[in-house]
Amino acid sequence: MRARLTNPARFLVLGALWVVCAWAGRAQTEGDYARGVAEFRAGNYSSAADLLARAEVASPGTTDALLFEGKALIHLSNFSAAERVLQGYIVSHHDSSDALYLLGFVLHRENEPAESLAMYTRAAALAPAAGDDLKIVGLNYVLLDDYPDAIKWLQSAVERDPKNKDAWYYLGRACYTKSRRVEARQAFLMVLSLDPQDSRAENNLGLIYETDGRPEAAMDAYRKAIAWQDLSQHPSEQPYVNLGNLLMEQGQIKDALAPLAKAVELAPNDAFCHLSLGIAYWKNRKVDQAQHELETAIRLEPDNSAAHYQLGRVYKEEHALDRAQAEFAKTAELKAKAAALPSPPSR
Q1: For a FRET experiment, which of 38, 71, 104, 230 has its CA 20 to 30 Å from that of 280?
Q2: Mean predicted confidence (pLDDT) in 2-19
Q3: Tens digits of per-residue pLDDT, 61-73?
Q4: Are residues 232 and 136 in the same domain?
Q5: Which residue range(s) make up the domain with 68?
Q6: What is the Cα–Cα distance from 110 to 240, expressed in whole angstroms?
Q7: Contact present, 318 and 301 (Cβ < 8 Å)
Q8: What are the distances in angstroms from CA 110 to CA 77, 130, 145?
Q9: CA 48-51-57 angle, 5° bins
Q10: What are the residues whose beta carbons fall under 8 Å from the beta carbon of 207, sequence distance 6 or more?
Q11: Residue 89 backbone phi and psi in degrees, to 5
Q12: What's the structural domain count of the chain?
């Protein structure tokens, strides 16, 4: 006959089992957390996120698992999941400036500039912002179309971190947008002092030279930018389309075709590139190719009045007068709509 445990003995056994299970669960949590952090630091972000999520489920709020998981998800560009995870971490760690700064960055990447700025304000009340943080603050103001504040914060970013190449670049872009070309040129030259073959900065110097009426200097800058980005895994279409359009303006219409065709190859969904190539084909009397490129531009951007006008000219050349008239009418309609839009408030 099996002996039956008395109540005290039963409680002792159950208590021992609970201790063993609790210890095992804690050991599992600590193991997953340690392995997750190690995977994160090794750059294995997907496996890190899985391990850290498991550690958090096993023992909610007892480690920094959610913080590291959020960082791993940012590296994986999974910003919606990173937002959720970081929000969860902040609930129990409301004084974590690290988490607040990270969440501000995530919200910026999700195109939520006002919400991002609110997070940066909370974070800055706990710990000073780094140069990269101030850069994102500036870019949030760019998204809000507030260029004076964008310039102010980007200037603060480069003052805080003078070697922050991206902050200098975006400061140059913001200054150029507001026609502050002297400051823009200085910013792009600072980028090039930090990275002598930065193709983005050289391309933007080309835009400044072009605006200043120095076409030869501009073309030289565009060609340098093209040469410097040849080995890039993600070359930009911008120096190609800028060079091609400037060549057309200078009457070198045959030479414009090659860079504009390359721009379309690199950015097949960019309406402006197709429009530019279509105009180049038109000027080179390649009517069929011009029609194809201009129709593609309109398919990608139906409200592009310039593309409709140029296509109307092509149809007229082909004696498709009804189609030409329809394109000219669409051009007039779009221009009338644009003229009726309220002007932005003055600052």
Answers
A1: 230
A2: 43
A3: 899 999 999 999 9
A4: yes
A5: 35-127
A6: 29
A7: no
A8: 10, 21, 16
A9: 135
A10: 176, 218, 242
A11: -65, -40
A12: 3
Distances in Å between the Cα of 19 and the Cα atoms of 25, 87, 263 are 10, 32, 67
Mean pLDDT for 33-59 is 95
| DSSP codes, 28-69 | HHHHHHHHHHHHHHTT-HHHHHHHHHHHHHHSTTSSSHHHHH
| Residue 161 resides in a domain | yes
- Per-residue pLDDT band for 341 (boundaries 50, 70, 90) equals low
**CB atoms closer than 10 angstroms to residue 284:** 15
- Is position 213 within any domain? yes
What's the pLDDT tens digit per position in 67-121?
999 999 999 999 999 999 999 999 999 999 999 999 999 999 999 999 999 999 9
Same domain, 230 and 147: yes
Per the prediction, the chain carries an average pLDDT of 91
Report the alpha-carbon distance of residue 228 to residue 98 in Å, rounded. 36
Q: Give the start-end residues of each E strand in the chain.
A: none
Rounded to whole angstroms, the maximal C-alpha distance in the chain is 107
Instruction: Return d(Cα 104, Cα 114) in angstroms, integer.
Output: 10
The whole-angstrom separation of Cα 107 and Cα 178 is: 26
| 305 domain residue, yes or no | yes
Tokens at 185, concatenated: 């040129």
